[in-house]
Amino acid sequence: MPFYEVSMITRSLSKPDLVKALTRAGNTLLDHGAVIEKVESLGHRDLPYKRLAKQTNEPVYASNFFLFKAHMSREARQKTKSILTHDLDTVQVDLIQVDTMPSPKVECNLEEILKSPADRQAVRDLRENQKMGHFTRQMIYKRTEKEWKSIPKSYLIAPPRP
């Protein structure tokens, strides 16, 4: 079964009505053979443009955004989209197929991590390739210059004149 993201925009509803609308949408998905993996609330936001509520034709400027992540067949996708689109509490419903790529294999580098920082190759690379900014270079230069000036210098004594 393909993996779909079902984005649902509802009207601005009170919490009990919002819960009813979400359970209705979830039950619709489950009744048509979908396997819901995750439900996310994307919050209450302003819409990019004015929409109209289905039954009352009132303008809707802000609404709740939800995202269902589910596995379902293509036939179930068409049925659930038509049912959710005709629900009076929803403003917009989109079902987008997501390509699931196999995740790359993760190699264990615990032995490298357990070494002391001085022995790790990554730390050595950082030390060799580290970049210094202008301010850091200037501070190092001033410090070395100060140390150089603090060292007493011995001057050669000129030979006596003939």
Overview of this protein structure:
One of its GO terms (biological process) is translation. Pfam families: Ribosomal_S6. This is Small ribosomal subunit protein bS6m. InterPro entries: Ribosomal_bS6, Ribosomal_bS6_sf, Transl_elong_EF1B/ribsomal_bS6. This protein has 162 residues and is α+β, with helices and mostly antiparallel strands. The protein has 5 helices and 4 strands; from the N terminus they run βαββαβααα. It has a domain at 3-98: Ribosomal protein S6/Translation elongation factor EF1B (Alpha-Beta Plaits), CATH 3.30.70.60. It has helices at 15-31, 74-85, 110-114, 121-128, 134-150, and strands at residues 3-10, 35-52, 59-71, 90-98. The chain is elongated, with a radius of gyration of 34 Å. The termini are far apart. The model has no long low-confidence stretch (mean pLDDT 85).
Main beta sheet: strand number and arrangement?
4 strands, antiparallel
Order of helices and strands: EHEEHEHHH
CATH architecture of the domain at 3-98: 2-Layer Sandwich
Low-confidence stretches: none
Report the oligomer: single chain
Q: Helix count, per DSSP?
A: 5
| Beta-strand fraction estimate | 25-35%
CATH superfamily grouping of the domain at 3-98: Ribosomal protein S6/Translation elongation factor EF1B
CA(first)-CA(last) distance: 107 Å
What's the gyration radius in Å?
A: 34 Å
Q: Mean of the pLDDT scores?
A: 85
Fill in the CATH topology of the domain at 3-98.
Alpha-Beta Plaits
Shape: elongated
